[in-house]
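Encode chain A's predicted structure.
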Amino acid sequence: MTPLDPSPKRVLITGGAGFIGSNLALALLARGHEVTVLDNLSPQIHTADPEQSALYRSIKGKVRFVRGDVTNRDDLVAALQGQQVVVHFAAETGTGQSMYEIERYCRVNVGGTALLLDLLANTVKGAERVVVASSRSVYGEGKYLSAELGPVYPAHRSATDMSAGRFEVTYPGCIALLTFAPTDEESKIHPSSVYGITKQNQEQLVMTVCPTLGIAPVAFRYQNVYGPGQSLANPYTGILSIFSNLAMGGQPINVFEDGKESRDFVFIDDVVQATVLGIEQTAAAGHVFNVGAGAPVDVMTVAKTVARNLGAQIPITVSGNFRLGDIRHNYACLEKVRALLGYEPQYDFERGVAIFCAWARSQGTTRSDFAGSLREMAEKGLLKKAAVEPSD
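Encoded structure for chain A:
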């Protein structure tokens, strides 16, 4: 595989003070690239005193930092000057929150991407490549295999089914239980949340507009990213942060649905590895890639693994609670990213969670308004409870 260019590049990372962005920035610096970061240091990620956040401090003084917003034209113009590669991470994240903060998610995720591309088309020239952070959420439910029909892509689950404790997906014409399979890049795109819709729009905007400008586009559909440094205070960023905070605080963990729902958890170093390949490899140009560990882990296993690694003797119960917009199963097929970019995940779930939990223990219990986030969802009618006890 031939590098994009043997010489160092000037790389802008929007949202570069965030979890993935800051780790990518450090990796690019180590490889000789010159990095600019545009970030608004959102309190939801960086707390009320954002300049003291560990993520921001990890890059402070090492990159050219522009404190600004991706929806602000002047901020973007200032950050884009002279850049050869743009890595577009700036986005609002959180599947559940997106279902009621609809305007904000669309304004930042879709509007910010549109403004970025408009400026590249009309105002700031010179970019050679745009790498956009897409998401596994664009798939909605993943790929399933039916004994009767072969590969199928089930629709979103209904509140009626989940209220009755029927959490597994079904498909018309299928009698036998469906088997979930690795979701490849050619799978059906049918997001089940506002967040997923905005990620689909971001990806499509970049992949459609950039070739018309002579800019090489690359999109990465990241699975559930975790690792040391992720926000433990943000209740919208993932169950590993939530579960670790509960465990360290000696509080019980209530697992949603029946605990058998599963995700693909990918360690931060593997995500950085893939993204660097997307920046440097010519083979990445014009392609969309899955990035994950390539293996499903159910949520009950996540809860037990976190509690074990933290030495927490706490109750772990199945609550039957469910969120509208959540999917049942999804994990990544990695054949394409392996074949074209040589990506290979280095961390399985057990190894990665052990590292994450050791780091989380060093941070101690972090104040997080997880309960408040659940109240918000319940008030909006998005958090519900099955009328029957989940069965084993």
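The radius of gyration is 21 Å.
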